[in-house]
Structures are given as structure tokens and as C-alpha cells.
Amino acid sequence: xxxxxxxxxxxxxxxxxxxxxxxxxxxxxxxxxxxxxxxxxxxxxxxxxxxxxxxxxxxxxxxxxxxxxxxxxxxxxxxxxxxxxxxxxxxxxxxxxxxxxxxxxxxxxxxxxxxxxxxxxxxxxxxxxxxxxxxxxxxxxxxxxxxxxxxxxxxxxxxxxxxxxxxxxxxxxxxxxxxxxxxxxxxxxxxxxxxxxxxxxxxxxxxxxxxxxxxxxxxxxxxxxxxxxxxxx
Length: 233
Prior knowledge:
This protein has one helix and eleven strands. It has one helix at residues 2-15, and strands at 22-32, 37-47, 56-68, 71-84, 87-105, 108-123, 129-144, 154-166, 172-184, 189-200, 207-220. The longest helix is centred in the N-terminal third of the chain and has 14 residues, at 2-15.
């Protein structure tokens, strides 16, 4: 637990100079059904406007299939809620398909992830129903620091860039940039913390968010330690 407190204190002090700090928290669980199949569940809370007040949540999950080495297909669904002035303003149901390709260069691991989403929105205050498609690409890099691979008692660093596109203007919807580090306690538990910059693009004007990110990831019956590393989603 001392290592976990160190991660939190270091990240908090690093971000204290930001003009506006937001919060991004994640709890996830991976269950290895077989060498080829896995199930995944995740919960998120975010404090976008005020670090002390949660105004967004996600609950989602899905099934992944490793059809050949380093290639995975995944199908997922989830429910999402956004609050304004402490009242629910938008509810969303989402379906998605994704493909992940992993590369290794010595100790460095790169993950390429492409995702296609179909989103169903309900505006709680007006009663309007809308739909939209979105497409995402993320390149993530993970490097263990004190061991040759990520396993029990390993510190690691992680960074990524993710781009979001839509079928409606503006077609470039969002970008996320993350840099952080974490600790793999054992084969079943890891923690990650860091800083994430997010820019939202809109016709009415862009919005910038500075997130302090923290996640806990539990893995059950996993035979691949590196897959247990939680990644910003």
C-alpha cells in the first residue's frame, strides 16, 4: 500500500499547478475464460467541471477473442450518463466492435486499437432521441522499469495518443494524450496513475480538460501478466 500512496501523492503534486483539474477514475476486471477467450467489465466516474464533484459515469463490458497471437477482436456494450448542475442531462447506450494488434520491441510493448461505435442518446431534459457513429484509434506504449516484462512487483510507464472521428461535422471529435506510470502488485492486481489531456472539438468552440487519472485493474485466471495492465479507455 505504500507504493500505491506514492503513486497518488506524486501525481497530485505534479498536477497541482493546472488551472483546472478534472478527475478520471476507473475500476476494471478481466476474466480469462480460456487461452483464446476473455470477459471484461469496467466502471468509470469522471469529475469534468470540478475535481470534487462527479458529473459523468460509465458502466460497460464485453467479450474478447484472441484469434491469432497478438491479434484480438472484441465486442462490447455500455451505459453512460452525463450530469449538468447535479441533474442528469444525457443518457447513452453504446455498442462497439474493436480490433487490437500488439507489437513488442525488446521490453517495449505497443498496442494499436481501432474501435467503431454506434451510440444511442437520450436527452433527459428535452426528451430527444438521437444516434451517431464514432470511430477511434489509439496507439499505446508500455515499458517495464525494473524487470524485463510486466509481472508481479513491476513498475512500468505508459503513454498513449487516441483520436476520435465522427460522421458529422466537425469530423475530428476529440483527442486524448496520456502519460503515467503504474505498479503491477501481482498477477491479479495493478494500479495506474497519471495525467491525461483531452480536447473536445465543436462548432461552438473547443474545450480542454486536464484529468488526473487513477485506475485499479483486477485479473482473474490470467496466464498473461502484461494483459492485466489497465489502460485509459
